[in-house]
């Protein structure tokens, strides 16, 4: 369990949308963006939990990975922290399933591969990697008539080299968590079920990390862990909790029982709660069912999903939960206070 004194901010799925991610982080008071593209962590001792699905459906995935890597170091230096969860789309890419990768993201991957090659300009380019990638992708993806030619074989090879277990970006994703507990709250992309809690969060995280790193084992190479990424009841794929409307009272009662059992197994106490992403919520960030103990923070903010208004969840150390959004950015009323266990 990660015990923190500062506020905790949960940001849902961002799916390759750099602009929307910067917006939501500024709404949360975590970063400032300066002329020239420099981004600075200003969140002090706050903890950011990005709920996974950085990848797919948008053009600026690697730029986002670089951004998160940068502000994580800054946050830790300031007494805060940044955690990223493994989502189902990170798992898809590590498995070589690229069906949701946009053309712009393939261009970005090729550009990133070029930056890894030896050359006299490499260090200079790496110094402003996020800006370099953003400019390359924007020029290619909006270049009229579909942009410049993109060789499919080259693009596929670059993608595999980067994201297959052991690849440079897969190793970065190995630092992510499949599930995470901060204070009295557990975070998971799809959700945590009793069988996951019984097995152990630490074991699940370790196994996912070994897979992403391409760790060698006695019989070859570590494979994708079933409980983490291996099917509809895995941590990254389950939608047991995240439906906006349950089909009937029995389905909701089952989900509520699973949630209560999971929180009990994790020993989170009477104020324990869970935060999930994975399923876009048409009504925005909410805890509208399951006794208010389940927060759903995927609002579909990426332009590749719903292009919805950016929003996130802020948890204070005293248990108060607030939904932060820019629905009225000209005023200070961008915080909607919601009791931590309210269904209203």
Write the layout of secondary structure elements.
Blueprint: E1 8-11, H1 18-27, E2 31-33, E3 39-41, E4 47-50, H2 61-77, E5 81-84, H3 88-94, H4 103-115, H5 122-127, H6 129-141, H7 152-163, H8 168-173, E6 179-182, E7 185-188, H9 194-199, H10 201-213, E8 216-217, E9 220-221, H11 226-229, H12 249-265, E10 273-276, E11 294-296, E12 311-315, E13 321-325, E14 335-338
Parallel strand pairs: 1-4, 4-5, 7-10, 10-11
Antiparallel strand pairs: 1-12, 2-3, 6-7, 8-9, 12-13, 13-14
Q: How would you describe this structure to a colleague?
A:
The protein is α/β, with parallel strands linked by helices. The protein contains 12 helices and 14 strands. It has a 6-stranded mixed beta sheet. β2 and β3 form a beta hairpin. α4 crosses α7. The C terminus is likely disordered.
Brief synopsis:
The chain has 344 residues and is of the alpha/beta class.
* Shape verdict: globular
Roughly what percent helix? 25-40%
What is the averaged pLDDT score? 89
Major sheet strand order: 5-4-1-12-13-14
Query: What's the main sheet like?
Result: 6 strands, mixed
Q: Approximately how much beta-strand content do the residues carry?
A: 5-15%
Oligomer: single chain
Structural class by SSE content: alpha/beta
Kindly state the number of beta strands.
Answer: 14
Rounded to an integer in angstroms, the radius of gyration calculated over CA atoms is: 20 Å
**Count of DSSP helices?**
12
User: Which sequence of SSEs, written as H and E, runs from N to C?
Assistant: EHEEEHEHHHHHHEEHHEEHHEEEEE
Low-confidence stretches: 143-147, 328-333, 337-344
- Termini, distance in Å? 29 Å
């Amino acid at each position: 369990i990660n015990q923190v004194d500062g506020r905790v901010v949960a940001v849902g799925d961002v799916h390759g949308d750099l602009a929307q991610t910067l917006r939501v982080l500024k709404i949360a008071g975590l970063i400032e963006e300066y002329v020239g593209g420099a981004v600075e962590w200003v969140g002090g001792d706050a903890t950011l939990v990005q709920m996974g699905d950085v990848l797919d459906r948008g053009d600026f995935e690697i730029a986002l990975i670089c951004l998160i890597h940068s502000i994580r170091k800054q946050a830790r230096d300031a007494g805060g922290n940044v955690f990223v969860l493994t989502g189902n789309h990170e798992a898809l890419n590590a498995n070589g399933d690229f069906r949701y990768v946009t053309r712009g993201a393939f261009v970005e991957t090729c550009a990133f591969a070029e930056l890894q090659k030896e050359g006299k300009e490499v260090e200079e380019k790496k110094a402003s990697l996020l800006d370099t990638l953003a400019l390359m992708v924007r020029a290619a993806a909006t270049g009229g008539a579909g942009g410049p030619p993109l060789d499919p074989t080259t693009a596929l090879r670059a993608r595999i080299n980067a994201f297959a277990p052991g690849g440079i970006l897969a190793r970065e994703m190995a630092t992510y968590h499949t599930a995470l507990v901060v204070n009295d709250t557990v975070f998971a992309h799809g959700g945590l079920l009793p069988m996951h809690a019984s097995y152990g969060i630490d074991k699940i995280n370790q196994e996912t990390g070994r897979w992403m790193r391409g760790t060698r084992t006695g019989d070859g190479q570590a494979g994708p862990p079933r409980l983490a990424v291996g099917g509809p009841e895995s941590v990254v794929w389950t939608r047991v909790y995240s439906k906006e409307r349950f089909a009937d009272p029995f389905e909701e009662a089952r989900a509520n029982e699973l949630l209560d059992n999971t929180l009990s197994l994790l020993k989170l106490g009477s104020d324990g709660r869970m935060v999930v992403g994975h399923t876009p919520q048409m009504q925005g960030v909410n805890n509208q069912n399951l006794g208010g103990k389940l927060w759903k923070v995927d609002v579909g903010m990426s332009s590749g999903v719903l292009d919805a208004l950016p929003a996130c969840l802020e948890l204070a150390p005293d248990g108060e939960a607030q939904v932060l959004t820019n629905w009225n950015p000209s005023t200070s009323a961008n915080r909607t206070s919601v009791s931590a266990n309210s269904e209203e």
